[in-house]
Amino acid sequence: MTEDHKRLLAVFEVRVRDLMALCDQQKRNIDELTVALSLKEEELRQAKEMIEGLHSKYDNMLTARIVSANGEDMKNARTRLSRLVREVDKCIALLNG
Asked: How far, in Å, CA of 66 to CA of 58, rounded?
């Protein structure tokens, strides 16, 4: 083997070692990113569960509010609405007059 071959072989070996080190580093990065992705996916799953639970609670609260509305509340609401309609009618009459 000539000196040039030996030198080329030594350069090749160094470059192969560098490439292997780079591959090992990339594998570590991939492993870290995989773990981070798994954590984020778990956080997302928990957030979705929380949102679903909150939607369910909200729907239950709306249902309870509708069911618990008694006659007095309905009467007060109608009275307020009627008063507002009369005020609007007066304003329209003033604008037209």
From this structure: 12
> Do you know the residue count of the chain?
97
Q: How far is CA 29 from CA 15, 16, 22, 23, 38, in A?
A: 21, 20, 10, 10, 14
List pLDDT tens digits, range 11-55: 999 999 999 999 999 999 999 999 999 999 999 999 999 999 999
Q: Is 73 helix (H, G, I), strand (E, B) or coil?
A: helix
d(C-alpha 77, C-alpha 83), whole Å: 10
Q: What is the rounded average pLDDT of the residues 66-72?
A: 65
Q: Which amino acid is at 41?
A: E
The letter for the amino acid at 40 is K
